Amino acid sequence: MEAGVPSARSRALAVLRVRSRALAVALLPAAAAVVLVAARATGRLAGEPWAAVTLVVCAVAALVLLLGGIFAAVVLRAGPAVTPTVPLSEAAAPDLYRLVRDLADRMDVPPPSAIALTPDCDSWLEDRTHAAHRRGGIAGGPQSAPGAAPVLVIGSPFLWWMRVAELRAVLAPVVAGTGPSAHPDIADARGFVRGLDAAVDVGGRRGLGWIAAPARLLLRLCRTDAAEMERGVAAAASDRAQGVDYGLRIVAQEQVGLAYAGWDRLLTRVALPAWRMGRWPAHLDAGVVSALTELSRRDRLAEGFTSRLGERPACDLLEQPGVIDEATSLLAARLFHGGPAEAGPEWSPVEWAAYPEEVVDRKWRAEAARLHAALDALAGPEGRPTGPGRPHGCAGPTASAGSASPAGAGSAAPASVAPAAAGAAGSPAPSGPSGAAGPATIEAADAAPHAVDGFAGPTLERVLGCLTNASGEGALGEALAGRLSADLAREERAADTAAGAGKARGADAVPLFPLQPPRSGRDLLADHVTAMVCCAAVDSAGAAPGMDWLDGPVLLVGGDRRSDLAPRVLCLVEDGDPEPLREWLSALGVRTEKPVRLV
């Protein structure tokens, strides 16, 4: 018998004893009522007081039985949570099913009933035999039959990054868990705990505190024993898997850590900017290979990992890796960003080759437009930001030369800058298919737009002048950062509202696993200034948008990545010193006075 099995069984019995005690408490009033009725029937409790006592006890017993029956029905029928996954049929991955069954045969355990993929760096067994899952159509097939083995859930990044032998070593202790899971006491204890958890959820969502409260109490009573039971199951599975590729498992665990690091960077730095624009990268799992290869190249400790790439990748076990990759990529967008469950006109896939042009460039243009809209919103009646000592360079494109009345205040504005005027008036900026707000396009850089104080249209010089002169007072920089934060918050609320309205179509109002915490206003201001600089470099100096597998959007000059821009932007935003950035722009040949295309 494997180490951990006796402990797991004893802990399972302890959990079941909590269930038995709860049942005994619920039946106690009924037992007292039976005793009183029997005593009254035999004449042992004669007299007027006992009649009233018997009646009260019987009423209490009936009420407790009714409430207990409803509670038990909720615990038994409420469906436990099921992890959103991409089902993988045997026809779609016969080699993978064969590998898993071979592992189960070698360890003498029942094979998993099915295999599913999750866009995360983890693998586990999940029971999907609850009747509520069948009623709701969540589960189907052999995995939902009563008494079926659990489903094997595999992290999709493992399939693309790991080699076949490494995946086999990683899955061995997971598959071995089907053995102790089949024990009746352990299965009953797990079902009881899952039912209580589901009852808490049902009671909380429907405002039924009398159901949620006792369920929480029972969970607290069996929490320690349930945790120790799971540790015993894990120990038993690990002990049973000792004889299967144990030496290779140590190396494979190193790949698990590397995959997690690369996957996290790919999601937060590369996928998230696209998701925020209404696009979702269609091949995230293929991208993680490029990201991890780049990480291995940069990290001297990981230099030996690239030699593995000559071995057979685990994704070769799939019949159509591209189709599966696209499905898991869409699921990742739903889980980590709250996007719709299906592609649509405003939620379309993007290929990696088109990412720089369709995501990076559009992201920069949208942020530059938002920056200038914020400047316009802070402008006073003369077209300049309010406050003492404001420079002429802060003037925006919303007022024509020689006019004291800004377009946003009711005077006529040219068509090319009217949307910017609307932003200055405080109304929400229009949003396109990307979901990003911004003014309309400045049709030609060298056209003759209306100018204010010598600066025509949305120019980088305007931004430099504003932040340079405002740094000493600290007023405009803080106000601009606050305005950007407010604008982004308004756009996110609008997106959440749209997601809530589309929930019936399969969208999540909020992401289940948010990737990033809220950012400070200063960080947002630095990002928007960087975007404006990149737009100016692309428009006037021949630079190009690019993508780094680990860092996301980057600026390419002559085909080479420029990584020296960030510290110069921080000098401007935090210290009000524009000279490092001006020197960088001059060396690159960027014309700061030239209007920038915003969409």
Throw out a few tags for this protein.
599 residues, alpha+beta, three-stranded antiparallel sheet, 19 helices, 7% strand
**SS-derived structural category:** alpha+beta
Molecular shape = globular
How are strands sequenced across the largest beta sheet? 1-2-4-3
Largest sheet: 4 strands, mixed
Count up the helices.
19
Order of helices and strands: HHEHEEHEHHHHHHEHHEHHEEHHHEEEHH
Ends distance: 67 Å
- Low-pLDDT runs of 5+ residues are 381-393, 396-456, 502-507
Strand fraction: 5-15%
Write structural notes for this entry:
The chain has 599 residues and is an alpha+beta fold. It contains 19 helices and 11 strands. The protein has helices spanning 5-41, 48-77, 94-107, 131-135, 156-161, 164-175, 178-181, 184-205, 209-240, 246-276, 284-298, 321-337, 355-377, 418-424, 460-470, 475-501, 521-541, 566-575, 579-588; strands at 86-88, 115-118, 123-126, 151-155, 279-281, 348-350, 451-452, 455-456, 544-548, 552-557, 560-561. The strands form 4 sheets. The chain has a 4-stranded mixed sheet with strand order 1-2-4-3. Strands 9-10-11 form a 3-stranded antiparallel sheet. Strand 9 (544-548) and strand 10 form a beta hairpin. Helix 3 (94-107) crosses helix 6 (164-175), helix 10 (246-276) crosses helix 11 (284-298) and helix 13 (355-377) crosses helix 14 (418-424). It is globular, with a radius of gyration of 32 Å. The N and C termini lie far apart (67 Å). Mean pLDDT is 81; it is low at 381-393, 396-456 and 502-507.
